[in-house]
Amino acid sequence: MTKKLEFPSNFLWGGATAASQIEGAYNVDGKSLSAIEMIPFIELKDRKDLSQTRKLTTQDLLDSIENKKGLHYPKRFGIDFYHKYKEDIALFKEAGMKVFRMSVAWTRIFPNGDETEPNRKGLEFYKNVFEECKKQGLEIMVTINHFDMPFSIIQKYGGWKNRQVIDMYFKYSKTLIDEFHSYVRYWLPFNEINLGVLFSAMGLEGNNEEKSLAERLAGTYQDLHNQFVAQAKFIEYSKKFSNTKVGCMVADTTTYAIDCNPVNVLENQRKEQMKKFFYYDVMTKGEYPSYSKRYFKENGINIVKEKTDDELLKNNTVEFLSFSYYMSSTIAKEEVELTEGNLMKMGKNPFLVATEWGWQIDPIGLRYCLNQLWDRYHLPLFISENGMGVLETLNENNTVDDDYRIEYLSRHFEQMSEAIKDGVNLFGYTMWTPIDVVSAGSNEMSKRYGLIFVDYDDYHRGTGNRFKKKSFTWFQNFMKTSEV
Ligand code: BGP
């Protein structure tokens, strides 16, 4: 039984990607390496504080891994979007997409972060990509920094804890908007700003286990403060261009109290405050929320600010909210049983099933989240990532019969349309991803999300050819009929 969903005619349907997961061409046209591209090559003990790896050069690290294993690390090669962007953009258009969310690699524009002039070859590449999108009639949303800080910024400056990095980020983001404001309407300064605390590879120190919890927390919130300031500086500058809009991007996970025990309900509220609302609150209201002040006090966190920071934050808030949504989780005061899976372990919910990676599928949780954000902020909403990662291979007909993905997308689209009927101002959706990419969390190709299959394996072996999955045709039809 098919069902017709209601969406506004100008709803922005599309797909999302990130430079370090698709581009490849890691050493081409002046590009340097970002820490996230280097991380698997760095000895585990050194990963905790990347600024300590300064004795090694990027080339040393590359040489050592090539010699030791002789294998290709997929993130450095991506899906070779650098050379195949025309083919891929044409496929997105063919699927019926209206918007393409992509990120720019900082390492192509200011390879070491501290150059005075941008790398023209890097700018040229993105200009060509944007021209191609324009030719195909695709709107563009750019993530300025999607997990990929130039490695040398961490080696030389220590990452976000150093306020000089704010200036480097500003120089980079200003260059992008100066060059590309006529192509790009939607800008997201940081991807999943609330998740960065997990990854030292992004120049943040939240996971440095050699430090005490108190030191880590203090470092985490100081890094974040500097990111908020960098974002506000970019927003302030962007006001010069009347056709652009700047939004935020938060990894949103709907959480439920495990039961109706008030202790657990309160615990869920506290988690929601510090793990999600804190970020939206700072970026929409331009000040630290009251509950965070108590949290900072109790945890001995004392954020070092410059005199002008508060005013800068206050005057430069985002115009829309965007978020990724993959799953929901349960919360209790005591530990709850966790799902099996990598990276993101969730509190188990007996009413839901999980993907092979333990990500619990919850379309209703998306409607819940949309209503929550709309009620609280009354700002336009955009779902900048949502999708299902699965191990897949091509069948004898050179396709993938991914009915599970069709089901996943249908149920999420259904709940989005319900949320719109609830009165939520949701103006777009970019699935993760329109095409298979290298996974951010596991660094492998085999966790596939795309409507389009890419013939590379975990060691970048394969033809790189693109094949349409069953979901591609399904999505194409959905764009014409709104039927699920
Ligand atoms: C988000 C990231 C993406 C993406 C996605 C899926 O957190 O913004 O870059 O990769 O998650 O995660 P994974 O690739 O680990 O499956």
From TrEMBL:
SUPFAM superfamilies linked to this entry: (Trans)glycosidases (SSF51445)
GO biological process, one term: carbohydrate catabolic process
Keyword match Cell division: no
Coiled-coil portions: none
Keywords: Glycosidase, Hydrolase
Family: Belongs to the glycosyl hydrolase 1 family.
Name listed for the protein in its UniProt record: Beta-glucosidase
